[in-house]
Amino acid sequence: MIRVSVVGAKGRMGSHVVAAVEGAADMQLALALDAGDDLTAISPQNTDVVVEFTVPSVALGNVLTLVKQGVNVVVGTTGWTEDKLNQVSAALTEAGNPDQSVFIAPNFAISAVLADHFARVAAPYFESAEVVELHHPNKVDAPSGTAIHTAQGIAEARAAAGLGPVPDATETDGGSRGQVIDGVHVHAVRLRGLNAHEEVLFGNAGEQLTIRADSFDRISFMPGVLLAVRNVDGAGHPGLTVGLDKFLDL
Amino acid sequence: MIRVSVVGAKGRMGSHVVAAVEGAADMQLALALDAGDDLTAISPQNTDVVVEFTVPSVALGNVLTLVKQGVNVVVGTTGWTEDKLNQVSAALTEAGNPDQSVFIAPNFAISAVLADHFARVAAPYFESAEVVELHHPNKVDAPSGTAIHTAQGIAEARAAAGLGPVPDATETDGGSRGQVIDGVHVHAVRLRGLNAHEEVLFGNAGEQLTIRADSFDRISFMPGVLLAVRNVDGAGHPGLTVGLDKFLDL
Amino acid sequence: MIRVSVVGAKGRMGSHVVAAVEGAADMQLALALDAGDDLTAISPQNTDVVVEFTVPSVALGNVLTLVKQGVNVVVGTTGWTEDKLNQVSAALTEAGNPDQSVFIAPNFAISAVLADHFARVAAPYFESAEVVELHHPNKVDAPSGTAIHTAQGIAEARAAAGLGPVPDATETDGGSRGQVIDGVHVHAVRLRGLNAHEEVLFGNAGEQLTIRADSFDRISFMPGVLLAVRNVDGAGHPGLTVGLDKFLDL
Amino acid sequence: MIRVSVVGAKGRMGSHVVAAVEGAADMQLALALDAGDDLTAISPQNTDVVVEFTVPSVALGNVLTLVKQGVNVVVGTTGWTEDKLNQVSAALTEAGNPDQSVFIAPNFAISAVLADHFARVAAPYFESAEVVELHHPNKVDAPSGTAIHTAQGIAEARAAAGLGPVPDATETDGGSRGQVIDGVHVHAVRLRGLNAHEEVLFGNAGEQLTIRADSFDRISFMPGVLLAVRNVDGAGHPGLTVGLDKFLDL
Fold this sequence. Notes:
By secondary structure, the first copy, chain A, is an alpha/beta fold.
């Protein structure tokens, strides 16, 4: 039985995590904390894994405190820079417990993580590749961080395979060809009714491969969160691990 | 039996038209002319309808000559400006034959014409609308003329229905949101293996409507060409008619 | 200001209707009744339009009572047979008020209603047509009533246009070609994560037209319900009207 | 420079192979043979690799002869049974040349091979999975062999991961739920204008993953054929190899 505490338990994601943990046969909810609660109430005496879903401004502090408390941490909060990640790694080293680990996921949706991975695997075999992401119209940034990551992965895989630029004879364009990220065109659609979706298109003469991930609801992140809780341990994945793909059998 | 002559008979489209006419049970091929041939060989004595598929630089001259020859003309060549269309209308008026008519289609693909029409009909009922067009990477312009036309139709229908701007909270965008045509975002994908495709996306809270037209091959234009040949007559459609939608039962 | 009462106000759909009416600038909520409440509290003194969303076993009785009470009724409950519809029509005739009307919609999702309509309009122009519907795995019937209706509409339109059977050389099939409804193949997919979706595929040599309606959430029915409330009046649509398409500008 | 001979050089596929070999910078065409030609003209003196694209009734005989001739063989002809494959393996063993190998591909379309592979990788992570294949209406069997293979792969991966049956509450079905292959529902669409397409749908609560392979034209097989020619060698892949996935970096 994995004892799981949740930090940010009253938030939009955190409340789903509390319910998911309570519904999982191999887990039990330990502490459910939110803003203002004392994180040092969490310790190896009551908790095996903490799930942290708060806001970028407090997440680093929370994680550093939890590492000192000696528990494993699964982090769903976004906004991690190179510098912040280094501070987490350093804290783990200082803690000196080889069985302790921290896991940070930019995206817990398994479909999105698989799509991103498959895009990288497929990229070397196609002359053309483009990314279309589609989201609800309240999203303030475009394109999505997931789409940027996917485009970068495709670009790296193409470069490693010795592929040149994608074919594109466009001479006249008023902006319809999208944003070019490392040579890969990325398009962002905003549509009421949608949530978070990504489509990766690959083409050769006479053929197309399409990989699409749809997240209709944030409940779609829960299988990924539970998977992370089951895998965040120093034995299998020591230190800091970033990306749910590390916990999938790919 | 409709007697059909083809001008531009050796071209990429014209050669398909010759074959399509020969394969149609209600038509027979009269003259098949190409660059250098004398258009005045075509007359009501041998031809009911001429199909003109050449290049923009000669199409106007061809049509004016054919109108003088007294035959009906179906035109597939592109590049028609307001001024050129006026010259054709004037020539028809001067010819003075109420039974004679000219038909010009920017697009003969029935799926594309229907998609364009359906987009205009659906537009008043949705909060969001965007257009994605996808073509082979040798196309030099982006977005396609068809996509621009579709976006304009959606914008007109939204305005007529009293709808305001589409919802879009995007604050940060490096170009991924596409080209905005009359308030409608249009995205252009270029992918080896594709030919000509258009997808129109509509969204309301909780629902999406998608209309997609795929033209895999220029043979897809032939049903539209034959439909035009059967309908280009002064009785039903006097003077100059533009757009295959005029010949569909919509 | 349209005064709207809701019958079945505590139900899954009815509670959304109450919220939608309260959120509409041109409506005000009159009475919100549920099982056990007395429908005769509803009268022209307090209500212009009643929205009835209950269960098939009580809907006919509710509608007959409400017609006697002299109010217009919008019905979202399903399960209407020819006989039941006739009883409603007879009740309206007996009431003898030319300004009173009843509206019944098998489907309030505007995207689904438009897709169904577009399928019928497009059908005469394509050699092939098939329907794929996709729903959550808890649905007990397959294919959906909406898909059956769409297939029937396609079949009628094909027949009216003089089209023969769809081309199909299949000799060996263990069941993968789906259910054939009036000559149109219909396929039903059941997938966790989906709600209610329909895709209509049309094909000619070299081209495809796809029309797809996605309902992600029952909130997608609210624009259709409000549209019906605004249009259910004896002046514009006397007597009994069935189908949201009658209230759209198609 | 790889010296390539083609057997079945005048066939629909073979003629494309001849052109593809002539267009490849690292290959040169050796012999182009067709029905009636003597296969023993092919030998290591003139040929490194033979591409065999004929018909099932002669393919086994051709391959056995070519193995005796001492050359590597890439086979695109279909219709291979367990027994036939065993005869090829036995012939290779008898030939006794460790550098000689035979490669047989049920499908040379890279997009289809990748889709099939990705489906197997993704299968353990989703509650629901279904397969939809779409082909031209002249195809005589349904579902396609590729779709059957994909469904079997999904079923094996689900079983290995300990997943139970897919959720499906369907009680009433007139055939719309498709053919069930090892517990996976497979649907076959036949549409004029299409060629060969496969869509694999995975679902969890709140999310969907879709993998789609489109083959618009048989030219789409050529990159896969050239890839096989470059990889069919006894050093890297001794003996008999079946399936293009063995030559991809997956």
